Amino acid sequence: MTEVQQAVPAMPAAGRRFRAYTAKHLDGLAERAGLDAGERLAVRAVATVLPFRTNEYVVERLIDWDAAPADPIYRLVFPQSDMLPEADVRRIADLLAADAPESEVRAAVHIVRMRLNPHPADQLALNIPAIADEPLPGVQHKYPETVLVFPKQGQTCHAYCTYCFRWAQFVDEPDLKIATDEMSRVTAYLRAHPEVTSVLLTGGDPMIMGATVLRRYIEPLLDERLGRIESIRIGTKSLAYWPQRFVSDPDADDTLRLFEEVAAAGKSLALMAHFSHPRELESELVSEAVRRIRAAGAVIRTQAPLIRSINDDAATWAAMWRRQTRMGMVPYYMFVERDTGPQGYFAVPLARGYEVFRDAYRSVSGLSRTVRGPSMSATPGKVCIDGIVEVAGQKVFAMHMIQARNPDLVGRPFFARFDPDAIWLSDLEPAFASKFPFEPDPQEPFALWAPEMLAVT
Ligand code: SF4
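Above: the input record for the complex with iron/sulfur cluster. Below: its predicted structure, written as tokens.
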């Protein structure tokens, strides 16, 4: 038995304190999954580039160890040896095996990370707002009505997803991080921007913060001078990775009282809950957490990316949406795996993603059809694949923008040439136009729906 296995009780009680497992526990846990020494070294090499963290609840309550390493929840949190290019994994594994100086390992790791597009959608270049020409780091303002705030103490998660598009937030590269604790500057910015009606606290996972710290970020948003703010959203995977946060943690009740204050201030509080697999919904703890959050006046909307080998089939999504609806949550988004980190490993082609979405969507009741997708959160906005159709003899993707940096483009359909292998917007070519509507050239009209011309394939 490994040191890790000895340290982990078989079935932690609901009231146990949070305990994280980090890189130093990885080898023992990978051994538990049946990996041999060579595979474990490769896994450690991957975990030197991308972040690894999990916890007792995920390890003992969610993972099916009899099915590991193929188990979807195991794959959700444990790095895979082939997630990164083979040459990169081998180079770093060789350095680890040779016990190379830390500076040498760090230099090699840095080179690999910079090839992984750490900030997709030009987050660092395009979306940082300013007050009187002074940048406001840790805040993103991409769409007119919504501002994202990255609380400084909320930039970790209860466990890290292997496919995470925010992986750069969690690695030892300070220049890649987005975070703020300057709420007075954030509220000053919001007061000066009446177009903003919604604030999203995101991370990492803001629910990693205790109630007292969370209050420092939420309370200023309830100021009556910010009466135009209609909704506060919190992006979180805590319901899946640590539901105790809302049930039995020492500050669970204080957190729910804070949620009640948001409702009492006349604003909508929405937990944007990240669920990747139906198994994450099965625990009685999750049901109780959902019940308590809803009783505090908050709504829970659910979202996740479509990920190869974790949730890339329609039955999995239909089961998730049904269960979420039954529990009183609102299915909201199916995302496309973003163009960063191990995208090549986890991506599902857009054509296949559309099929998965449609097959799942048509098999659930209208109450679950609140969900949108598959949607790409790309530089110009959120681009949704609406279908694969034939127009004037040409097979194309029909698409529209759910959100757009240019609000005029929201909801306006357009087409891309069908490509069965495309995994991201940048792989697509416009159809019936020389450019996509979000590409700069105001002279050029873009292709519009002509329903009578369409034949659904
Ligand atoms: S919970 Fe979200 S931010 Fe945290 S690791 Fe998973 S995908 Fe990334």
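Notes for the reader.
The first strand starts at residue 20 and ends at 21.
Residues 37-49 form the longest helix (13 residues).
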